[in-house]
């Protein structure tokens, strides 16, 4: 890919883009599954846990669901890889604690961290928009194999705020928050999912589809979006505007 992107900000997807989906599915999902029950039974009074439980009850249409029924719903959504906000919230709590204890270390493709450091040094603002909760994102970047990467990124967004990743309004909300409501073309979104790329472009953003062999959306492709196999193929500059 030879196109050069002159933008102020890059917004990053995580799974399939900066990091292997397989790591999330094979390592993080089982880790959270084994700990849902204890979290629900021992910390039901935690405000974040209580809010997530209320959301599970609303989504399942069972206002009286007990901890066992809530855990069953979470595991079903996990099996379906459903991007349900309460599932992501509770996973985020569990993962953040696992990263803090040293049980978990996040994964990044080899080309990602050098590119992020390069773009950051050039004055490009880096942000994250992932279906994983903001708490999980923060722990993910803080606990990389190369140490704490959190200083490289600024704003973090999930499906609770600003909303679903395949809705253009979510990207408009982010643009407004970043001060780019009037010129969303100064924002670049990197993702492996065509539906997310379509939504970002509908909101006026620039887009690059990241296609990595072995990732779930590799064979599907990224439609007519610019595409790259690694971050090394993405050239980003930032002119002063």
UniProtKB/TrEMBL annotation:
<dbReference type="GO" id="GO:0000287">
    <property type="term" value="F:magnesium ion binding"/>
</dbReference>
<dbReference type="InterPro" id="IPR023214">
    <property type="entry name" value="HAD_sf"/>
</dbReference>
<comment type="similarity">
    <text>Belongs to the HAD-like hydrolase superfamily. MasA/MtnC family.</text>
</comment>
<keyword id="KW-0378">Hydrolase</keyword>
<dbReference type="Pfam" id="PF00702">
    <property type="entry name" value="Hydrolase"/>
</dbReference>
<keyword id="KW-0028">Amino-acid biosynthesis</keyword>
<keyword id="KW-0486">Methionine biosynthesis</keyword>
<dbReference type="InterPro" id="IPR036412">
    <property type="entry name" value="HAD-like_sf"/>
</dbReference>
<keyword id="KW-0460">Magnesium</keyword>
<comment type="pathway">
    <text>Amino-acid biosynthesis; L-methionine biosynthesis via salvage pathway; L-methionine from S-methyl-5-thio-alpha-D-ribose 1-phosphate: step 3/6.</text>
</comment>
<keyword id="KW-0479">Metal-binding</keyword>
<dbReference type="GO" id="GO:0043715">
    <property type="term" value="F:2,3-diketo-5-methylthiopentyl-1-phosphate enolase activity"/>
</dbReference>
<protein>
    <recommendedName>
        <fullName>Enolase-phosphatase E1</fullName>
        <ecNumber>3.1.3.77</ecNumber>
    </recommendedName>
</protein>
<dbReference type="InterPro" id="IPR023943">
    <property type="entry name" value="Enolase-ppase_E1"/>
</dbReference>
<dbReference type="GO" id="GO:0043716">
    <property type="term" value="F:2-hydroxy-3-keto-5-methylthiopentenyl-1-phosphate phosphatase activity"/>
</dbReference>
<dbReference type="GO" id="GO:0043874">
    <property type="term" value="F:acireductone synthase activity"/>
</dbReference>
<comment type="subunit">
    <text>Monomer.</text>
</comment>
<dbReference type="GO" id="GO:0019509">
    <property type="term" value="P:L-methionine salvage from methylthioadenosine"/>
</dbReference>
<comment type="pathway">
    <text>Amino-acid biosynthesis; L-methionine biosynthesis via salvage pathway; L-methionine from S-methyl-5-thio-alpha-D-ribose 1-phosphate: step 4/6.</text>
</comment>
<comment type="function">
    <text>Bifunctional enzyme that catalyzes the enolization of 2,3-diketo-5-methylthiopentyl-1-phosphate (DK-MTP-1-P) into the intermediate 2-hydroxy-3-keto-5-methylthiopentenyl-1-phosphate (HK-MTPenyl-1-P), which is then dephosphorylated to form the acireductone 1,2-dihydroxy-3-keto-5-methylthiopentene (DHK-MTPene).</text>
</comment>
